[in-house]
Q: What sequence folds into this?
């Protein structure tokens, strides 16, 4: 017998949605054609949710009661042979808000990053240090309460995450020293969705339906096409003056190997985070703090580079705005970059606790695509038919992945039983 203390609004055309905010509460939201109706918490009434109450919960298609499957935590329609997953209402709201802030924070962050790098090439160490320091200080004050709150997840797991993150960053940056062009660099990063899905199938024994495979391939192909089209125009314009690249095959293979290693390790890092949260619970702010605080001593090796660019920042011209004439504009750009980076990375960490690593990778990949389009618009680069073709692939793949274009609502992911 299933017993829950719940808050629910029972409706004959409704399916259950579990709130998970420390207490188990049960809310209902219309499923099917009326799924767009908002959840109305004001109409909730206290009830006890057990198997007897399932007679109130009927299939929106057959109008017959659904059977609760406790092993899979789903409601089953025996007539249709389909299962309706019990979803998390609070999670859905957090996911929507976090996704919006990923796009807003990350895209504006890239904008200010481009402004800084254009004016001060090579200042990325100063930018990275500022971002890490800001997040570490914020986490030390508000997350650990000045070090009084001990971590829920053991530090050894955070050390593993830091090592993974460090190796990914070093490999991606070092690959450029092995005759790897920026177009190839960007194209490799566009393969993160496929890498994540492949590792999830191998390591987590997951199965994905055919339409999700097709959606991932469409999104990745669309981003690759847009990337090639974007950099292709610039290459053509500079063909007369650019130097020809004669790197050896061996050198290129080393660079490609580094990119491939970074791609797979980045996907593995996402799956590792997902596993940690499943084992120790969801603690996005704690993870955000420790992953950014633990690497800070490593920046001591970069002090000369950081100091030299700080001097250059002091020499930059101020912005022509009242009360800002005395502040060098590079420091203002850096402040805005740090704030938007905090919004971006915190939203990403919320997604990692509420979604699968593949879904997080999808959001980040689409964010990269939006950044590419904004960059094309901001720098007034031509948007050709090839760009439009890639755009159609990306958005069609997104609709397919999210189930908008899928034939019917089903359980889209299942985990194989392991011995």
A:
């Amino acid at each position: 017998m299933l017993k829950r203390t719940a808050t629910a609004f029972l409706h004959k055309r409704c399916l259950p949605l579990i709130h998970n905010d420390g207490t188990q509460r049960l809310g209902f939201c219309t499923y099917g054609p009326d799924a767009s109706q908002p959840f109305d918490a004001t109409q909730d009434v206290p009830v006890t949710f057990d198997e007897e109450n399932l007679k109130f919960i009927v299939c929106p298609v057959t109008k017959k009661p659904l059977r609760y499957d406790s092993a899979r935590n789903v409601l089953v329609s025996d007539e249709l042979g389909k299962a309706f997953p019990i979803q998390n209402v609070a999670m859905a709201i957090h996911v929507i808000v976090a996704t919006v802030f990923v796009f807003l924070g990350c895209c504006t962050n890239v904008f200010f990053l481009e402004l800084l790098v254009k004016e001060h090439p090579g200042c990325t160490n100063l930018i990275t240090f500022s971002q890490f320091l800001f997040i570490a200080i914020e986490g030390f004050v508000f997350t650990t309460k000045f070090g009084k709150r001990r971590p829920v997840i053991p530090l050894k797991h955070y050390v593993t995450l830091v090592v993974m993150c460090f190796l990914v960053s070093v490999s991606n940056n070092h690959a450029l020293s092995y005759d790897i062009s920026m177009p190839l660099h960007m194209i490799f990063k566009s393969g993160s969705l496929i890498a994540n899905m492949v590792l999830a199938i191998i390591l987590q024994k997951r199965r994905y339906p055919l339409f999700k495979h097709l959606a991932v391939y469409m999104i990745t192909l669309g981003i690759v096409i847009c990337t090639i089209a974007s950099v292709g125009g610039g290459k053509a314009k500079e063909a007369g003056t650019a130097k020809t690249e004669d790197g050896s095959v061996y050198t290129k293979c080393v660079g490609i190997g580094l990119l491939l290693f970074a791609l797979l390790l980045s996907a593995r890092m996402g799956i590792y985070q997902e596993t940690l949260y499943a084992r120790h619970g969801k603690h996005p702010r704690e993870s955000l703090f420790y992953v950014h605080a633990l690497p800070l001593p490593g920046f001591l090796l970069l002090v000369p580079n950081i100091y030299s660019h700080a001097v250059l920042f002091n020499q930059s011209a101020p912005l022509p705005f009242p009360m800002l004439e005395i502040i060098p504009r590079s420091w203002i750009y850096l402040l805005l970059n740090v704030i938007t980076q905090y919004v971006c990375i915190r939203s990403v960490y919320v997604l990692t606790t509420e979604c699968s690593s593949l879904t997080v990778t999808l959001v980040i990949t689409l964010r990269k695509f939006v950044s590419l389009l904004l960059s094309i618009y901001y720098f007034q680069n031509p948007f050709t038919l090839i760009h439009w073709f890639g755009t159609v692939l990306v958005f069609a793949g997104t609709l397919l992945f999210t189930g908008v274009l899928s034939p019917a609502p089903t359980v889209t992911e299942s985990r194989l039983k392991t011995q």
About this structure: Residues 249-280 form the longest helix (32 residues). The CA atoms of residues 112 and 333 lie 6 Å apart.
